[in-house]
Amino acid sequence: MNVDIHESWKPYLETEFEKLYFKDLVGFVKAEYRNHTCFPPGNQIFNAFNHCHFDDVKVVIIGQDPYHDVGQANGLCFSVNEGLKHPPSLINIFKEIETDLGIPYPKSGNLMRWADQGVLLLNATLTVRAHQAGSHQNKGWELFTDSVIKTISEKKESVVFLLWGGYAKKKQKLIDTKKHQVLTSGHPSPLSANRGYWFGNKHFSKANFLLEQALQIPVRW
Questions:
Q1: How many other C-beta atoms lie within 10 A of the C-beta of residue 218?
Q2: What is the pLDDT of residues 8-65, one digit of tens each?
Q3: Separation of CA 69 from chain center
């Protein structure tokens, strides 16, 4: 695994790449990709950072780990490649945007268009073995992505963090809520959404309102 990450992140994360846990993680990921089918493709592992540069980050959405079926994962949480069927959580995200903002349901489930506007779509674990959800958890990725969240919290101002579901909400302790805005709700997965914990959270209009309050350009969701 090459740490193929955009230059804008390097001054903030280079010390992380030198740590023992990260070197062990690189060894683990290389062996997994060599011996098993893993996702996303190796050159897309750091896509979230390569499409959302450090200086541009204004919204952070935290997922857990990548989709584990063939061709789905593209390095951005909740996002799938062009032309693929939308997974259930993504369907519920788009449905909420539709009712919240009156935007028609999109054909493409590729959220690159959000990332390019400054939305960091960060999975806590950046890789996964095919058809084995959570298979690369607790190998070091979470230490790295926690460091990313802390770095954004420390080095930036007025970022909007969207924390969906119990796992993401635990990351709130890494965020300075005096400087940043945090919106929480249930997860968009059907299990949570169908119990009333997701729909109606209006996170997309609220995030844009908070961005405008901070004199930033709202996201075209």
A1: 16
A2: 999 999 999 999 999 999 999 999 999 999 999 999 999 999 999 999 999 999 999 9
A3: 18
Tokens of 208: 């844009």
Instruction: Tell which residue, 92, 98, 122, 104, has the closest CA to residue 187.
Output: 92
Cα(61)–Cα(78) distance, rounded to whole angstroms?
Answer: 9
Q: Which two tokens stand for residue 194?
A: 């169908």
Question: Which residues are marked as active site?
Answer: 65
Please state the length of the chain.
221
Do the beta carbons of residue 160 and residue 210 sit within 8 Å?
Answer: yes
- CA 29 remoteness from chain centre: 19
CB hemisphere CA count around 12 (13 angstroms): 21
Report DSSP state, residue 86. Answer: P
Q: Is 60 left (phi over 0), alpha (psi -120 to 50) or beta?
A: beta
Distance (Å, whole) CA 150 – CA 160: 14
- Per-residue pLDDT reduced to its tens digit, 60-79: 999 999 999 999 999 999 99
Cα separation, 78 vs 87, in Å, equals: 8
